[in-house]
Amino acid sequence: MGKLTHFEDGRPRMVDVSDKAATLRVATAEATVLLTPEAVEALQEGGVGKGDPLGVAQLAGIMAAKKTGELIPLCHPLPITGVEVRLWFEPQEARVRVVATVKTKAETGVEMEALTACAVAALTVYDMLKAVSKGLEITGLRLLHKSGGRSGEWRRE
Amino acid sequence: MGKLTHFEDGRPRMVDVSDKAATLRVATAEATVLLTPEAVEALQEGGVGKGDPLGVAQLAGIMAAKKTGELIPLCHPLPITGVEVRLWFEPQEARVRVVATVKTKAETGVEMEALTACAVAALTVYDMLKAVSKGLEITGLRLLHKSGGRSGEWRRE
Amino acid sequence: MGKLTHFEDGRPRMVDVSDKAATLRVATAEATVLLTPEAVEALQEGGVGKGDPLGVAQLAGIMAAKKTGELIPLCHPLPITGVEVRLWFEPQEARVRVVATVKTKAETGVEMEALTACAVAALTVYDMLKAVSKGLEITGLRLLHKSGGRSGEWRRE
Amino acid sequence: MGKLTHFEDGRPRMVDVSDKAATLRVATAEATVLLTPEAVEALQEGGVGKGDPLGVAQLAGIMAAKKTGELIPLCHPLPITGVEVRLWFEPQEARVRVVATVKTKAETGVEMEALTACAVAALTVYDMLKAVSKGLEITGLRLLHKSGGRSGEWRRE
Amino acid sequence: MGKLTHFEDGRPRMVDVSDKAATLRVATAEATVLLTPEAVEALQEGGVGKGDPLGVAQLAGIMAAKKTGELIPLCHPLPITGVEVRLWFEPQEARVRVVATVKTKAETGVEMEALTACAVAALTVYDMLKAVSKGLEITGLRLLHKSGGRSGEWRRE
Amino acid sequence: MGKLTHFEDGRPRMVDVSDKAATLRVATAEATVLLTPEAVEALQEGGVGKGDPLGVAQLAGIMAAKKTGELIPLCHPLPITGVEVRLWFEPQEARVRVVATVKTKAETGVEMEALTACAVAALTVYDMLKAVSKGLEITGLRLLHKSGGRSGEWRRE
Predict the structure, then answer these.
(1) 3-class secondary structure per residue, A69-87
(2) Fold of C21-155
(3) Range D21-149 classified under CATH 3.90.1150.10
(4) Could you read off the pLDDT of A33-61 as tens digits, one per residue?
(5) E18-155 maps to which CATH number?
(6) Which CATH code, of 3.30.70.560, 3.40.1280.10, 3.40.190.100, 3.30.70.640, is assigned to B20-148?
(7) Looking at beta carbons, which residues of chain F come within 8 Å of D58?
(8) How far apart are CA E6 and CA F42, in angstroms?
(9) ipTM of the shown complex
(10) In the annotation, is D127 catalytic?
């Protein structure tokens, strides 16, 4: 099964990283929630003061990063050393943007942790707006940057 | 905070659904993983026989539907009565499509469960291909259809 | 072991509630975090605007209510139908108060869910202030009110 | 937001501890369950022989220490290297005392793990006695001692 | 895939039980831990007084029953209404026996919950004895009896 | 309580391993599912092509290894660095064999992780076949080999 390291002889496995060194790894990912006009309006009304919806989504993203190893079957459980999740409501573009950065000192990287944080933060935005409009869509969930490890630095162009 | 039912006086809450009837609810969602040429090639080599990557992603999606209440802060824990997740590798379009349908008999719907199943299945595809190519992107994560409950049937047009 | 229904012949068990009817159950609990002067000051500086510490603690409390069955060994897993958690910072009394109300339609009550929500919300307040002052203390974690079920209504006097 | 390290520009985050050294950290916390006369009597009848309620609570506390990172939103997941939880039933004072000590070799401390172990052990005592008396109260949940890390040793006076 | 209801067109799924009635379901399972002479001796020394190893295993089994839906990919999450786990140390036969009974009112049965409770209780016995002897073996993990549901009663002969 | 290191003064504890060195640890375990003739037949019909039942069980075993610390009360949470689970359907012998190998770099070994992976993989085989035949039995769940740590290498003879 050639290039798929998660497979050996056609069987999935959690890749053995015992021989790798535990070094600093950082990954940043992003996602976008496309809003309907009703959702934009609801967020504009509701987005002032404490307890706003983006705050709930941000916390959901941070907590989800810690659950990545439970969700993604072949991911290693990693000792995360830092998580930042940010959300921006851009009413002009009718969207919410999410960016998450995760750090660890481990034998393998945290790309999946950053992507999972973005996915769950975006889903939480969806959850809070779904009574207003079911037509929302999550798009552009992807890696922006990673550093550390044998494959070195990578940046989306 | 007007139309955001998850909020009362600016504070998030798990909406009280005690007065609603437990009825059949169904929701279907979808997502798409956009592949790079290297990822298409790797999947073509690895996608034959048992243990293929889409099988891993499918199971990850089913299991994630059961974790929705843990991931999305204001979601109710629901007694899911059925989950189907399907993935299609479309090499011509350089993509993997995911569709998930979730059912329950409960006081509230399973839109978030169907969306979460799609998101985690798509992330699992990403995970298995990330050693080949980091440039994948998850897009079009959205609700296709729901039925049951006070708001009745909804279908994306 | 007389009055301890969780035990039979000296062995703990999850009490069989199969014969009980699933009816509406409500429980309200409270807790208090006693603050030091440094903690009061830090909360006063930090407690304005979105993302304030009490918002984090509130969400932690809501999510913890859903984890009660995992944490308390002999608790039944319950289909929670509503959760509200509120926190008040009372600088004059140098304390934060927490009150949580949980609802379900089930064969047994949600006292432990309300208490667990308060405990985790209070612990989260502690966590966010521990860099400022380790001398905080959580006190008065107790049930305020419950209704529903064979034992009927109970209210702390 | 001045002294609240869990916040940056008003947004909560999991503080980046990548630059810190992984060293031995120890924390000890305590809690007290205040009993009613009926609860004292029930524990006296039930507290002999194996399977007694305090044994259940002790195990619940040990297992809860491992769940701290899931419960407290901004806590780091830590590789716990040891947990001890002890409970004393003091019928004269009509109370149960809980003391928990947690150890790790990590970049940050285990105060929250020790406090969470005490909280869940105390809640478990409450759970097993609530059929006898709902008037119990958990009090004095606080840190007793910590060592290790940049802030060094701290002991409650 | 003929008789395997968990599969449709070669793909696993969580079988749709929405059309079934929620009725009382009971299942009882058993397992046996075969001991070495060193393990028998250690249990005989350690098995007196509170906190004995079988008490830890019993509680682990009860808690594991609640985690079945997380562990077994295609299992439905079920509202368990009662769990009993018993362990007997039989030094003459050099073994520990485990029997677990689980109840629910649901659309599908609790065989897997009873089996999972036995498996985890037996593994916990192993864990506590493994410093004494690694040669233990878990055997005879199987269903003894089930009742309720369309397939009615079943008893191992 | 003599030789039971999990106990001190009759109370269970998570043994303090802070003083041990984090070194490479490997453990391999096995289990066998004894099949009935109906189960052999169902597996023969269903076992061809992708998505076969053993693939589901294999993934369940890998994911369960990561949950060991949650299931076994006194187990340390470990940073697993590799997991392999293999299943063989042996129709002639009317059985399915499971073998799991787990690796870590930690202060304590991964015997329980390998055993838990085998147990959950075997239970998943049971789950998928239970509609066909309830008479299956899991047997021979035991350690085959371990290396690393103070007690060195051990191999079942």
Answers:
(1) HHHCCCCCCCCEEEEEEEE
(2) Alpha-Beta Plaits (3.30.70)
(3) no
(4) 999 999 999 998 875 443 478 999 999 99
(5) 3.30.70.640
(6) 3.30.70.640
(7) 11-12
(8) 12
(9) 0.96
(10) yes
